[in-house]
């Protein structure tokens, strides 16, 4: 048994920021199913928002304007007190990362450069070319190494131990030996990222299977607003690798088969820089009405930006387009289509990252604080990981450790035995159905019936299909019986959580009879504040999620019509 004061699960930006904030004050260990530098945070391209006012167009920017844009962008579902924390603390957070060594791109006079992003009134997105996540994650990881942070890499957390409403630790499976162990701690923080891979066309890393959200759900913790799934407008046709919104921030244009800049019909003023839900819907409509190419994609035009600017500001985008689509944005059009990108919902937390279970916290994409409401603005997620990673660390540092009950060794021992038996039974299954068959069917159903456009009949069919797949999962077989690096077993474990999360997404979407942000019901195309200005909470029952609601916190901004 490993014993710590605090266990942080997740080596992305949220996990590292939390761990760094309490290392030295508490005995902390970080667990991650991949090496921290392989976390999805590394793939973030376009940037991180903070009202620094570093460009002439942004001189009058303020954290209050940032907060308003975020609340409006989220279609008024965000909790406004949490948004205020996010935006007020953004400048100090970006400067802190700069002081820790993050090499941001610069203005001619040497300040941190900022580019326009969707739904933002000013250029407010700080960036390091189009590799922002890469430089931020390396900055934090180097700092963690200098501080001697204990990291257990390639350990898959498979269950959360909770006794009488208080967390006791986690149980995890090391890839190398398969010898399942207990990590006892009175405090556990989940920073386990999103679930993008329950969809077929996703920009997310293959590891983004939503494990942490699913484990919390299976442990009885409420999950909030999971029906709000973000589809990014521009993913590369064929591979769905992300083409950052920064490409449109730099001036890129979207054009249909007739060469028309069609976004003027969907967002007259902001056009390509409207929030993502609006641009993605505009693109999906163009494609379904026959204005796309091969019924599947449209074009992003960057050619007018010129070779020098593309090479300086968007070097990785150019490489991706050349390597994965065989086109050079300097002289060619880039084929793009919308794809799943981000999870607005997640583990229900308050504005300090606390959950319904004592000692159990969540931060980053797996958490729903909620700062993004029904639709996240680009550049606000990296910010959320850092700000709320820090908020959780501060909360932990100010709370005396003896306020949390000591983990109960005999309880943990029996939890370990139960988990060993469960995983052994899974390994011994001789069913004929392969996990990949179920997983691919799930992805197809979610993409086709719980995607950008939704309606009652599609969602009902999706719910039936997901439930049928859950029954099929009971007969999943595992051919590889080894204990060492058994990725078939790992995939089977992850798939169970993916099925649960899909069921919550679909049930929430079916229940919510309105359109708000990323959730668009063709049979209820209007937002309905009288009935639906509330968060969805999903709680686990053996029959499926039981849905409930939670008030939205409104401080300064009463809901208005959302036009761009
Ligand atoms: C391609 C792409 C580009 C993006 N670009 C931007 C951008 O420019 N700006 C922006 O604001 N946002 C961007 N985002 C969103 C943003 O990058 C993510 O929301 C954010 O980085 C998530 O960070 P995180 O720390 O919450 O989780 P992640 O970085 O996803 O890390 C999750 C961690 O949890 C661990 N983990 C998960 N499950 C388990 C388990 N069962 N056991 C042990 N460990 C586990 C993983 O190993 C990993 O270390 C982008 C997202 C994508 C996909």
Topology (SSEs and partners):
Elements: E1 2-3, E2 6-9, H1 13-22, E3 28-32, E4 48-49, H2 63-73, H3 80-88, H4 90-99, E5 114-115, E6 125-126, H5 132-146, E7 150-153, E8 155-163, E9 166-174, E10 181-184, E11 187-190, H6 211-218, E12 223-224, E13 229-236, H7 246-249, E14 253-255, H8 276-288, E15 298-301, H9 307-313, H10 315-325, E16 334-343, E17 346-348, E18 360-362, E19 367-368, H11 380-398, H12 409-427, H13 435-449, E20 453-454, H14 456-473, H15 487-511, E21 520-521, H16 529-532, E22 534-539, E23 546-551
Parallel strand pairs: 1-10, 2-3, 2-11, 3-7, 11-18, 17-19, 20-21
Antiparallel strand pairs: 4-6, 5-6, 8-9, 9-10, 12-17, 12-22, 13-16, 14-15, 15-16, 22-23
Helix pairs in contact: 1-5, 1-11, 2-3, 6-15, 13-14, 13-15, 14-15
The structure holds flavin-adenine dinucleotide.
Flavin-adenine dinucleotide binds at residues 9-15, 31-34, 36, 39-41, 43-48, 132-133, 156-157, 191-193, 203-204, 207-208, 211-212, 242, 244, 342, 364-366, 378-382, 385.
Terminal CA distance reads 55 Å
Q: Which structural class is indicated by helix and strand composition?
A: alpha/beta
Shape: globular
Strand adjacency order, main sheet: 7-3-2-11-18
Computed over alpha carbons, the radius of gyration is 22 Å
Helix fraction, binned, reads: 25-40%
Biggest beta-sheet profile: 5 strands, parallel
User: Count the helices. How many?
Assistant: 16
Q: Report the β-strand fraction as a percent range.
A: 15-25%
Q: Strand tally, please?
A: 23
Average pLDDT score = 96
Q: What small molecules accompany the polymer chains?
A: flavin-adenine dinucleotide
Low-confidence stretches: none
């Amino acid at each position: 048994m490993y014993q710590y004061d605090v266990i942080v699960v997740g080596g992305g930006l949220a996990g590292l920021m939390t761990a760094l904030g309490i290392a030295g004050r508490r005995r902390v260990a970080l667990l991650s199913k991949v090496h921290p530098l392989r976390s999805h945070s590394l793939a973030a391209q376009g940037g991180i928002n903070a009202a620094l006012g570093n460009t002439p167009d942004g001189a009058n920017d303020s954290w209050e304007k940032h907060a308003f844009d975020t609340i409006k962008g989220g279609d008024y579902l965000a909790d406004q007190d949490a948004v205020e924390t996010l935006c007020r603390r953004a400048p100090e957070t970006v400067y802190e990362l700069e002081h820790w060594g993050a090499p941001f791109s610069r203005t001619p006079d040497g300040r941190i450069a900022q580019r326009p992003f969707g739904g933002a009134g000013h250029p407010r997105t700080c960036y390091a070319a189009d590799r922002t996540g890469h430089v931020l994650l390396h900055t934090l990881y180097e700092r963690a190494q200098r501080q001697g942070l204990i990291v257990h890499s390639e350990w898959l957390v498979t269950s959360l131990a909770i006794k009488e409403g208080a967390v006791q630790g986690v149980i995890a499976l090391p890839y190398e030996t398969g010898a399942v162990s207990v990590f006892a701690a009175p405090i556990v923080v989940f920073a386990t990222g999103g679930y993008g891979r329950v969809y077929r066309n996703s920009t997310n890393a293959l590891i983004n299977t939503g494990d942490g959200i699913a484990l919390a759900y299976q442990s009885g913790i409420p999950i909030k607003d999971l029906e709000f799934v973000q589809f990014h407008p521009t993913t590369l046709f064929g591979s769905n690798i992300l083409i950052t919104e920064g490409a449109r921030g730099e001036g890129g244009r979207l054009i249909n088969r007739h060469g028309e800049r069609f976004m003027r019909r969907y967002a007259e003023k902001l056009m390509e820089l409207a929030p993502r839900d609006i641009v993605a819907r505009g693109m999906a409509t163009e494609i379904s009405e026959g204005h796309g190419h091969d019924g599947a994609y449209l074009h992003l035009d960057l050619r007018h930006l010129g070779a020098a600017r593309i090479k300086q500001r968007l070097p990785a985008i150019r490489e991706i387009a050349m390597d994965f689509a065989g086109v050079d944005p300097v002289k060619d059009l880039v084929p793009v289509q919308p794809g799943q990108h981000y999870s607005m919902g997640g583990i229900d937390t308050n504005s300090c990252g606390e959950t319904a279970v004592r000692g159990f916290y969540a931060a980053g994409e797996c958490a729903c604080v909620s700062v993004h409401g029904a639709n996240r603005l680009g550049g606000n997620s990296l910010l959320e990981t850092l700000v709320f990673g820090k908020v959780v660390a501060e909360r932990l540092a100010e709370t005396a450790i003896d306020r949390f009950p000591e983990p109960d060794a005999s309880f943990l021992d029996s939890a370990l035995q139960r988990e060993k038996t469960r995983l052994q039974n899974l390994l011994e299954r001789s069913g004929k159905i392969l996990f990949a068959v179920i997983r691919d069917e799930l992805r197809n159903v979610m993409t086709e019936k719980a995607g950008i456009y939704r309606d009652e009949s599609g969602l009902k069919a999706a719910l039936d299909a997901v439930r049928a797949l859950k029954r099929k999962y009971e007969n999943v077989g595992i051919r590889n019986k080894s204990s060492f690096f058994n990725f078939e077993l790992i995939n089977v474990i992850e798939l169970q959580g993916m099925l649960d999360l899909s069921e919550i997404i679909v049930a929430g979407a079916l229940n919510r009879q309105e359109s708000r942000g990323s959730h668009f019901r063709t049979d209820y195309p209007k937002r309905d504040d009288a009935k639906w200005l509330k968060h969805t909470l999903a709680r686990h029952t053996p029959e499926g999620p039981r849905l409930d609601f939670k008030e939205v916190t409104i401080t300064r901004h009463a809901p208005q019509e959302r036009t761009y």
